[in-house]
Each structure stands twice: as C-alpha cells, then as structure tokens.
Amino acid sequence: MQLQINDESLPVYEALASPVRLSIIRLLSKNKMNVKELAHALNLSSPITTMHISKLEKANIIKTERVGQQKISSLRVDKIEINFPEKIFNAFDTKESAIPVGHYTNYLVEPTCGLATANYFIGKVDEPKYFMDADRMDAQILWFTKGFVEYQTPNLLNEQENLEMMEISLELSSEFPFSNDNWPSDITFYLNEHELGTWTSPGDFADIRGKYTPDWYPDNLNQYGLLKTIRIMAHGTYMDGEPMSDFTIEDLKKTNSDLWKLRVAVQEDAENVGGCTIFGKHFGNYDQDIKIKLYYS
C-alpha cells in the first residue's frame, strides 16, 4: 500500500494510531484469526475487538471473510509506504512531457507478458507478438517477465536553456502470473543507453483494487504499483532520494541528443528475475503516464 499526505489517506493513519490495532496487525501477521481468538489474545471483549477490526477494515489494512460459521480476519497488506509532497526547486524553470505506456519504440519481452487498454486486453496474453499490435498505442498497462521496453521523447530545451536536473516518474511493480505481494524483481533503467541504476520491486500487488484500475480488469491480476521518481542531478542519480548511481546531469548532456531514450529492463542475469509491470493512466493508483520533467536555467 502506498499513501500520500492527503485527506484520502486519513483512514489509514487513524487506524494505525492505536496500540490495540497495532497489536491486531502483529497477531494477524502470524495467523488468520476470528474475533473470539483476537479478543482472548488482547484480553478485550468481543464487541470492542469488533470495533477495532472494523476500523482496520475501513482502512483496507485487513479483510474479514466468512468461513462456515466464523468470520476470519487476515492482513491485506504487508507494507505501507508514504509519499511526501515533492520538493520544489524554485531556482529553475521547468518543462514537462508525458509518454503513454503503449508508445514504446523498441521492445524485447518474454512471457508472462501482455498489454491492455482501459477497455480490453490487446490480443492474447503471454504472446509477445501482440506487443506490435496496432492497438498497443492505446495500452495503459503492460507487463513482461524478462527483456525490455524502450521509449523516446524529444528534448524540449533549446540551445539557450541549460539542463540542471531531469526527473522521471512512473508507476511500477513486479510481474507474477497472477499476483504475489512478495515477488522481488530487479528493474534496471537506462537513459540514452547509459545505465541509471537498478531498483528492486518488492512484489506484484492485488491485495486491493487499484484506484484507477477499470472495473472489467480481473481482481486476481496486478492492480497497482509503486510510484517511483528518478532524479538525475549534478552529483549523481537518485530514486526517491536514495542513491542509484554516479551518473550525473553532465554525463547526460555529453550525449548531445535531441531525443531522450528511456529503457526499462529486467535483465536475464539479474539476481531477482521477477518481471516488470508499468501502469499508465486508467490503471493503478496514479492517474499518469510516464512523466519526464526537465529543470533548466
């Protein structure tokens, strides 16, 4: 689960602001339990325990299902990330562009793989040839186990504008045949054929439906990813503030290109070959395509 600093996330923050509810989370991390078992473990009455369970259900942290005559509770998530508002770099002007997920210009993928628009799957899943289907230009989600997709976008700066920093943001997860919250994958990023670094995605998530994932899309398939932001700066490349590599903005400017060529890859020799899913508009938790933001002086 990934949260923002906004009112929509308040139910989660409120649910976590209780020692009793934190104890329930710890208990359910070990076993599924019914209300009576939880109440006994917490030394509370069943009605009070039920109230705490309801609070956690409302926040989508746990789920309760009827099994025979019992209601059994279990965890829906195993990790929560909080995205703070982006820092504003006031000293620079900016130019932004966006690349739809289906607008890749080169690819080499291996199954499991597939694409979908906001309304339907494109061709048959797990057949790479459909990555060249004409409808792929309308794709809003794609996934593959090994290989890469590559995008190109114009450099919008003119000769008088000096690039100070580049920011790339996109929503990503691993790729499992259906879904698996614990399925690490090493996803590597390249810009103009220079390696920016590798991020290990923790899993392929379907614990809850993606905020923008269309209703027709099956519940048991990847529902959302994590929004990752890569910044290429004067002293190196970072993802969400953590160092990725020593590749700098000066290294990028030496390529002297009118086009930015972005590749997202899962290498065959990676330690964790767990695939990649890229979410665009109308899928996942962020209503955006792949965003490129240039900071210049």
CATH class assignment of the largest domain: Mainly Beta
- Tertiary shape: globular
Strand content: 35-45%
Q: Oligomeric form of this entry?
A: single chain
Would you count the extended β strands for me?
19
Tally of separate helices: 5
Helix content: 10-25%
Distance, first to last CA: 37 Å
Class per helix and strand makeup = mainly beta
Can you give the mean pLDDT? Answer: 93
Q: In terms of per-residue confidence, which ranges show pLDDT below 50 for 5 or more consecutive residues?
A: none
Roughly how many Å is the radius of gyration?
Answer: 22 Å
Give the CATH topology of the largest domain.
Answer: Jelly Rolls
* The CATH architecture of the largest domain: Sandwich
Instruction: Count structural domains.
Output: 2
Describe this structure in words.
It is a single chain. The chain has 297 residues and is mainly beta. It has two domains: 2-75, Orthogonal Bundle (Arc Repressor Mutant, subunit A), CATH 1.10.10; 86-296, Jelly Rolls (Sandwich), CATH 2.60.120. Helices cover 14% and strands 37% of the residues. It has helices spanning 10-16, 19-28, 35-42, 46-58, 249-253; strands spanning 2-4, 33-34, 62-67, 70-75, 81-83, 93-99, 104-110, 114-116, 141-144, 146-154, 163-173, 185-191, 194-201, 226-233, 236-239, 242-245, 259-266, 276-279, 290-296. The strands form four sheets. Strands 6, 8, 9, 11, 14, 15, 16, 18 and 19 form a nine-stranded antiparallel beta sheet that branches. It has a five-stranded antiparallel beta sheet with strand order 7-10-17-12-13, with no helix packed on it. This is ArsR/SmtB family transcription factor.
